[in-house]
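[audit] Reproducing an earlier prediction to check determinism. Same input, same settings, fresh worker. If the tokens differ from the archived copy the diff job will pick it up downstream; this log only records the rerun itself.
[audit] input (218 residues):
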Amino acid sequence: MVEWITTNGLTDYEEALSFMESRVAGIVDGTADECIWLLEHPPLYTAGTSAKPEDLVDADRFPVYEARRGGEYTYHGPGQRVAYVMLDVGKRGHDVRQFVKDLENWVIATLDRFNVKGEIREGRVGVWVGRPDKPLNPDGSQAEDKIAALGIRLRKWVSFHGLSINVEPDLSHFDGIVPCGIREHGVTSLVDLGLPVTMDDLDVALKASFDAYFDGQA
């Protein structure tokens, strides 16, 4: 059984870390159910284990936290749905790459419910959308923007941290970092793409798409 928790308002980042630490410990020792936690944070930047100092463009803009997850710099803030994923990867085959792929496909399936085609790009973490409405890149390729970020950590084969999907954040807040270390592409959101999607709409889609990739009850 996977417990789903949805928290309204803005959740302090350190409180979220504390909750995840406690919940993961409980999953490891068998005293707590697996959990998907849906929330929003106040504006902040997080640094993953691969973060480069030069990618923190404006260190004074928002608080910066060491996340100890995989990946580089990421922004979290109002209008962005964060899904913290506390699942037992061990009982799902001990395959970290497949688990990350399942997370990516879960996001893609969720976006598909809004007729948004999310895609994966080799060498780039996260989920991307093509932007035919924007000028072509200098090499003639289609412009692309990032709509979802992923970064996980494992402890005794239980995952924490997870993913974030941009519903309607202030996209200018991403200017204080180089998101995930990628300079040549932008960031978008469902509302930026012209879709009047609410956070509740996205939550319904996330739950409806979950069981196709993870055993559990959404």
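[audit] rerun output stored. Observation attached for the diff report: The mean pLDDT is 93.
[audit] end
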